[in-house]
Each structure stands twice: as structure tokens, then as C-alpha cells.
Predict the 3D structure of the following.
Amino acid sequence: MANEHTDRLAGKPAVPFLAADIGGTHARVALMRAGPDGVRGVETLAYRVYACADFPMLSDLLQAFVDAEVHAPVKHCVLACAGQIMGNEVVNDNLPWPIHLTQLHHALGLDEVAVLNDFEALAYALDGSLAEGGRHLCGPDAHATGPTLVIGPGTGLGAAAHVPGAAGGLVLATEAGQMDFAPNSVREREVLATLAPEGGYVPFEHIVSGPGLLSLYVALCTLDDVAPTLAMPEAITTAALAHSDVQAVEAVDIFCASLGSFAGNLAMAFMAAGGVYLAGGFLSSIFELLKRSAFEERFLHGRSARALLSQVPVWVTEHGHHGVHGAAQWYLRRGMSNGAALRPAIVGGGA
């Protein structure tokens, strides 16, 4: 059943717990505990990355980690998952299997399973590890105070905002990737018409993601009346980097430009003076193409927004272990705040 946090970890900073960042393709799992500095001093005791497709259920994936790395009973787990929590289920079309929290609780013998959105977890990491790295893409090359965004295209398109304030500030999860895509050029209108020949709703996620890049490439091949020869997003980015496929080069160009529009939209909505972090190895692999693309011009938008957005720094950073760190920080913050839950996203019962 869903219930309020009962402060099980408060006063026990050395109790290890599981933290997992579950995406559509990979799951990053860690055994963690609070360090001597409490919520800001998270220690990683073990860490592994798994391919989600290798396991029939999330409980099997987590059990594999427990069997390999955990040598004493662990009763607490926090999950950062793509999607949203609806009752005792995580709902997202990009996950390889359904996640039922009660099943997970019983299968692993856990006292407690806490859940938050995966990009919400990354936004919590902006209070520490995530903000410490990254390559500068555009805007001022300096950190400033103000709302900060973390955005990442992968199997889907995620985004969250961190608003500074007392006790580590406030993190806002979003489903911004589901916002309507708006073409910015005649060519993009043609692509949109190819993707949705009968019209209707096309979210940004269907353009700005790994599967979206593949859809772009296929649409461009259709428009150019050539047969697609590439079947994976990685093959498209490789061909674009090598300039060996005309449609791959154009697909990456449109992807980068559309990402600029999306990031600029959110930067305006949240007045993101603290900057924008673009997370994911996918973007790191095409950083030079991204830097040469129309990303910055599209990020800056038109005259009225340009003065604001030109002062917003943008960095590209690896997703890596930051999701599990952010999830752990969120969980410890809840556990050490006298049970003040941000929302009822915990399943437990205790044995």
C-alpha cells in the first residue's frame, strides 16, 4: 500500500540502500549510503549498468545486482524511472516492461520502495555532482544563480527544473517531451507532414530522441525518394560524423535545431537564469555536430526573447551515475526531514 515515509533512515546514516535509475534502454543500479555529511555526502558502495532488455522484469534486474554486489540484507530502495507514478504503477511507453511497485516490494523482500521521475532525480543531482562537469555549448561560460534545467533525449525526451531555495531548493518534474512539435522551416514542415500525413499531434519526443532521430532519417529518405540504409540511431550519428550519408547529416541537423527550440522554450517558461544542462552520452557523442548546428540560433528564438536567452548558459554533460546520486539525495532528504513527504510515492509495509 502507499503510505507516508516513517523516517526509517533518519538517525541511521550508515544504513545501505538500493538506488536505481531506470531508463528505456539502460538501468543504472547502485548500493549507497549517506556519508558523514548527510544528504549531500552520498557514498557509492557498488555500481553497475544493465541492459533492460536482458531481463523479463525489473525485479529480476535488481535481484541480479543484489546477488552480485550486496552481502547483507537491504530493505530500502529508491527508483528513478522514466514516466510518471500512477498509484502503485509507473506509467511510460518507453520502458521495456511494466513496473508494479507492490510486486517489486514483495519480490525483493523490501520494507520500502520510493519512486521519483528519472529527470527529477537528475535535477536533484544539480545540487552536487551533475553541475560539476560538462562541456560548454553556448551562452556565458559561467555558473549563475537561478532556476536550472536538465534536459535529455534518449529513448524518450525528459526534462526537469531545479529552483534554488532553502533546504536544497525545489525540483519540478515535467512531461515537457510530450509538448507539440512546431516546425521552424519549410523542410521541417515537409518532415512533419511525412510523419503525420493526416495531421494531428506529434510530440517533441517523436523528433528529439533516439527513436525520433531514426524517424527523421526515414522521413528524409522518403522525401528524397531514396531507400533508407541505416536502421539504428547510432548508425545515423556515426554516418553524420563521417559525412557518409546525406540524409543522416540532415537528420542530425534537424534533431539539433529542434533540440535548441525545445530547450529555449523551457528556458523561457522557467526563466532559467541558472542555465541548461543537456544530459546523455548520446549528445556527448555528437557534441561537435551540436556545436556547429543551428542549436544556438534556435535556442535564442526571436527578438523579444533573445536578450533573456543570450544570458542563459548551456552545457552538455554525461548522464552517467548522476541519476542514482540524485535519487539517493532525494530519498535521504525525505528520510531526514521528519517524514515531510513531497508526494505519496512510497510503497512499504515492513516485514
Remarks:
- The CA atoms of residues 239 and 245 lie 6 Å apart.
- Confidence is low (pLDDT under 50) at residues 1-13, 336-344.
- The first helix runs from residue 58 to 69.
